Records
---
Amino acid sequence: MTAKRQILDSIRGSLGRGALPPSRRAELEEALNHPHAAAVPARGTLPHPEQIALFMAMCVEMSASVDRVASKALVPAAIASYLASQNLPTRLVVAPALQALDWAAAPLLETRFGAALPIDPVSVTPVAAGVAETGTLVLCSGPDSPTTLNFLPDTHIAVIEAGQVVGGYEEVWARLRVDGRLVPRNINMITGPSRTGDIEQTILLGAHGPRRLHVILVDEHGG
Amino acid sequence: MHPTSHDFKANAHRAMRDEALQGALATLKKGFRAKRGVAVERLPEFEALRDAGRDMKNHVLAHLDHYLELFEAKVLAQGGHVHWARDAEEARRIVLDICRASNARTVTKGKSMVAEEIGLNAYLEKNGVRPVETDLGEYIIQLRDEPPSHIIAPAIHLNRGHVAQAFVKAHPQYPADRPLGEARELLDEAREVLRESFVTADLGITGANMMIAETGATIIVTNEGNGDLTQTLPRVHVVLTSIEKVVPTMEDATTVLRLLARSATGQEFAAYTTFSAGPRRAEDLDGPSEFHVVLLDNGRSNMLGGAFHDMLRCIRCAACINHCPIYGAIGGHAYGWVYPGPMGSVLTPALIGLEEARDLPNASTLCGRCEAVCPMRIPLPRMLRHWRGREFERHLQPGRVRLALKGWSWLVRHPTLYRLYTMAAVATLGMLGKRRGRFTSMPMAGGWTNTRDLPAPSARRGFMDQWATGRRR
Ligand code: SF4
């Protein structure tokens, strides 16, 4: 008997039944199409402007830094001034999804588009959503947004549009379902920079992932 | 890992006398416990989420075969592989076979308690594959060649000095007199050393906090980002997990995620929660080319439907461990196997046998704190009592203990005699201990008084006596 067979039989034996009847299986499978969210926290159901404020506040609480710009056109300059203020390198690896930004507007930035290499000091990525409840960014992997950008560089800069901020996590899943994007290779929920408490329970930032997470919120679409 | 649970009593005695360990354990209270309290306080919906989590998991367990098959079908449809392992040996062999098939020499590992459970590292090493732990705590204990002492903070029994010592020995590429007194210096060195491993590893092994039947994704929840580098950079990603961790939908996973970090470290949310579904897609610029999930049973299917069924709801948050006065006094190694504290005392006898682990169910005061904080509302004390009952039935306690229990049981079934006996005992102890209010030593009770005082009865009359005369509040 194969291992799978034996494990399934053992489960059924312990539960005191055989395999579920096809009608029950169909019912349970159908139920997956109507996912049920239990107890969504009230703090995730604020009106949108307050959601944005909560999102920004939670990002800061989680040790990310935040900036807010009026349009997409201003993002490259905002990146340049952040890096200058922190004394960080200006060599960027950027998600292909952001290739259309006006990079020429910030001539001091050196940009490359693609996945991250271990030598890349700074990455710039879009996000699929931002969740106000805990200041969590949601990123979906794909050719436009390679996963290594989220983890290899010392500094991760994430660009989020105001319209991408939602209250609770379930709203993100609902949006991704509609877009048929619920199952990219990776969904990364990112809340603040990398950290550890493994030495004497002292919380230190910059364990293995980025030492810094900088979030740039863009108020207006397009641009 | 080879269990030493049968030596629990000796282990515990040693732990109580270990000053470094006692110092390290003192951080539990201000750390995890206090932070959990604050996080729970901030979320008014926490109790409702606990109910929802419990109900959701009960539903899954009642249909576990079905959800596992759904999950498997999704993984296969996305080009991944699923391997079923009846026991530890089968799981180890599966992982080794995957390593061999992909010619893997060095494998990086994210933290996985299932890997500890099956003793994966020792097995891989014996077979010519070098495992490198990448979670900082796991890395430290790997260098020291010891097992984790906590399920989410594996090196909690150590202090900076221990870590510095281990690093000086393990990293000869750095000058021996470099400063390593601060946690920051230790972390930066580990980061640099492990970067190398991340980039050169042939294969990455992670655990999974959950699997989702709806999408065929596995989930890891981490703070360091090591799990993500482990699974994204090498050619092959192996997820090693156990059958009870499946949930139906993203929404169900979300309920657990809202409970997990708050219960574990007292964080609002962990830094990284990652859903992984299948190998890299045709157009992807990064990610592993192969994706394997190993589903371990190892005794879990037998727990279904029985006295320990509810234990399968466990999400391994460690809240019960962090709040356990026994764990707080002796740390995790004394328990002698992979899972310490209350959850371990329930799980260990179920997974490796009551004969080996017979002392663990007694390593509890049944104070109930574990159940009070368990996000999945697992009735841990009830299950510990259940194990004690089985021990008695199976004659696993020493003769002296059985005799004493039998004698006691006879005595309490004869109320008049019982009352006379306790009155006499209370009067005698009260008189003898009147001056100091406590006993620091007592014949036949050295097991108690060696490490703590026995309070002397304050009134000369016992509870029954006071109750009868109406002196009750
Ligand atoms: S038994 Fe409960 S509190 Fe303990 S680790 Fe499991 S889920 Fe957490």
---
Amino acid sequence: MKIAIMDGSPKNKDSASGLIAAALQAELTPAADCAVCHAASHDRDEIMAALASCDALVFVFPLYVDGIPSHLLRLLDEIQNDVATVAPGAAVYCAVNNGFYEAHQNGVAMELMKNFCVRSGLRWGQGLGVGAGGMVQAAPIGRGPLANLGRALSAFAENIRNGVSADNSFVEPNFPKFLYNMIAHMSWRVQARGNGLKIGRLWRFKISEVDEWVQSGKSSDINKGGK
Amino acid sequence: MGRTLILHDLRQSDAEQFLPRDSVKYSLFAAAPPVRHCAGCFLCWVKTPGRCVIPDRGADFAAIMTKHDELIFLSRLVFGGLSPDIKAVLDRSIGFVLPFFRKLNGETHHVRRYDKSPAFRYIFYGVDITDKEKETAKKLAAANALNFGSERFSVSFFSSIPESAETLL
Ligand SMILES: Cc1cc2nc3c(=O)[nH]c(=O)nc-3n(C[C@H](O)[C@H](O)[C@H](O)COP(=O)(O)O)c2cc1C
């Protein structure tokens, strides 16, 4: 059995998608020959080779503006006519993680993936929505606040191994929403301060101030090292 | 600058032929040739608030949005959503809102950066659009509007570029 996992985060390291992809790969190996491919850095030939004669294609990506990140969307758009020839009969699975706590906000992206399946003539397997993606780095998957995620990934991996289709599933951390939100807010402030931003005026603009801000070059001047 | 901003994915020749030339009413932003894709760095939130740090014309879009009462996405329908070219611009424009969360309809969404957001109007074109794809597109539009703090949105579908552009005339 051959399985390709496509990591659709544009980040090369420290991404939630990368961790989820690695955990899935560990679950699926050695029962299957399972490789992880990074959509943003592998070229089209490498990607097509990775997809070739797979039984399952697993797309693991972050939710971007309620949908699929543009670089991954471009890949899907470009391969929709050929992918079924390259990997006939393959089932498509996806694990989508998002920044907000609620996992169900990944539902639209899963529908987009399902529509991709219909267009490309592949079989739809299942979608897994992972809420509070900012927490995936917080602990080893399967432990503490990520116990739920560990269980959800095991069940998801089993469906992939068996090639079965199932209802979408959604998972949130063993951690309260209000605390997750509080920590997220704190972290935005800390990061902004670290970049030398004054909290307050810079966060909220009147539209009339935008021109001044953009034209002053302050908004785009990263090379002067704002820190 | 017009009051309505049209973000479209038409080739230049099609844009010239089909899009309105009334520059009092409309501003145009061409999503093709594509801008670079978002790198997921969040510096538009924590370093250069409101502006993407990748230095190409995609960095301007969020600021341009603030100048308009209405934003029209004139997009090829891809899997029930925006086309990759349009999506590349939109992913680069999340600095339009703040990173902070607020609760809307019982869900988490972003706090606005500006006093107001344009109304969102989705005009999709494509051949053999399925009912499922239409359903997805409507859900996507509703979710986008909530996250960008837009109070009004609408979605329509057409089978060709000329037909979709005609609704603007
Ligand atoms: C351009 C962009 C758009 C995003 N849009 C959403 C969104 O619509 N809803 C959401 O909950 N999170 C959104 N996020 C947050 C990411 O989904 C979240 O940070 C995720 O954990 C990143 O995953 P990764 O580390 O695998 O890249 C967005 C992030 C970026 C950079």
